[in-house]
Amino acid sequence: MSETLAQQYLNIIREIGEDEHREGLLDTPMRAAKAMQFLTQGYQQQLDEVINDAVFSSESDDMVLVKGIELYSMCEHHMLPFIGTCHIAYIPNGKVLGLSKFARIVDMYSRRLQIQENLTREVAQAVLTATDALGVGVIIEAKHMCMMMRGVEKQHSNMRTSVMLGSFRENPKTRAEFLDLLRN
Ligand SMILES: Nc1nc2c(ncn2[C@@H]2O[C@H](COP(=O)(O)OP(=O)(O)OP(=O)(O)O)[C@@H](O)[C@H]2O)c(=O)[nH]1
Ligand SMILES: [Zn+2]
């Protein structure tokens, strides 16, 4: 556990005018440091470790959709959470990826300081790298606390980002099938 990080949180507690000796705050620097390390553990992960060889031969060449993977990330501008849902589709090319690995990929890239556009691209690229798929489509819908709790304070706006690679980019029918499957 990083003592240095805990020390930084102690400084924050002092700087905002709180009493660091107040009972409820005594363990807070260490707790906050642990929480921050958890929320940024994606920096310690590598794609091949996350995939753990869970790639299986398959003759399936129909679209696979993994819908509604929840995500919790932090915006790199304010270090405040953005929270949402990720949908991933791909067209296998002789190999399929273990189902849980899609969520693990999303977690690995979410648990870093991010902007939603880059997160979407990194997830799509990782699925393509892991599967050699014919195409990959990723859509993320999220709400940004930096827009809700502060700043413009808009509670109801959602950001939707998409990245289409391979056949999802080249073939409008593939993209339409993805969007159709998502609607149903
Ligand atoms: N495109 C994009 N923008 C983001 C994301 N997360 C936060 N932002 C925006 O990043 C911008 C940073 O703008 P700045 O003007 O430098 O910072 P600021 O003064 O705190 O901005 P306000 O939020 O408008 O108060 C803001 O418009 C945020 O809404 C993201 O995932 N994608
Ligand atoms: Zn922000």
From TrEMBL:
GO molecular function ontology, one term from the record: GTP cyclohydrolase I activity
EC number: 3.5.4.16
InterPro entries attached to this UniProt entry: GTP-CH-I_C/QueF, GTP-CH-I_N, GTP_CycHdrlase_I, GTP_CycHdrlase_I_CS, GTP_CycHdrlase_I_dom
Matches recorded under PROSITE patterns: GTP_CYCLOHYDROL_1_1 (PS00859), GTP_CYCLOHYDROL_1_2 (PS00860)
Signal peptide as annotated in the record: none
Pathway: Cofactor biosynthesis; 7,8-dihydroneopterin triphosphate biosynthesis; 7,8-dihydroneopterin triphosphate from GTP: step 1/1
Residues involved in Zn(2+) binding: 75, 78, 146
Pfam families found in the cross-reference section: GTP_cyclohydroI
SUPFAM superfamilies referenced in this protein's UniProt entry, alphabetically: Tetrahydrobiopterin biosynthesis enzymes-like
UniProtKB keywords: GTP-binding, Hydrolase, Metal-binding, Nucleotide-binding, One-carbon metabolism, Zinc
GO cellular component terms, A-Z: cytoplasm
Domain GTP cyclohydrolase I: 7-182
GO annotation terms (biological process): one-carbon metabolic process; tetrahydrobiopterin biosynthetic process; tetrahydrofolate biosynthetic process
Reactions catalysed, as given in the entry: GTP + H2O = 7,8-dihydroneopterin 3'-triphosphate + formate + H(+)
HAMAP family: FolE
PANTHER family the UniProt entry points to: GTP CYCLOHYDROLASE 1, GTP CYCLOHYDROLASE I
NCBIfam families: folE, PRK09347.1-2, PRK09347.1-3
Family: Belongs to the GTP cyclohydrolase I family.
Quaternary state and interactors: Homopolymer.
Protein name (record): GTP cyclohydrolase 1
Organism in which the protein naturally occurs: Motilimonas pumila
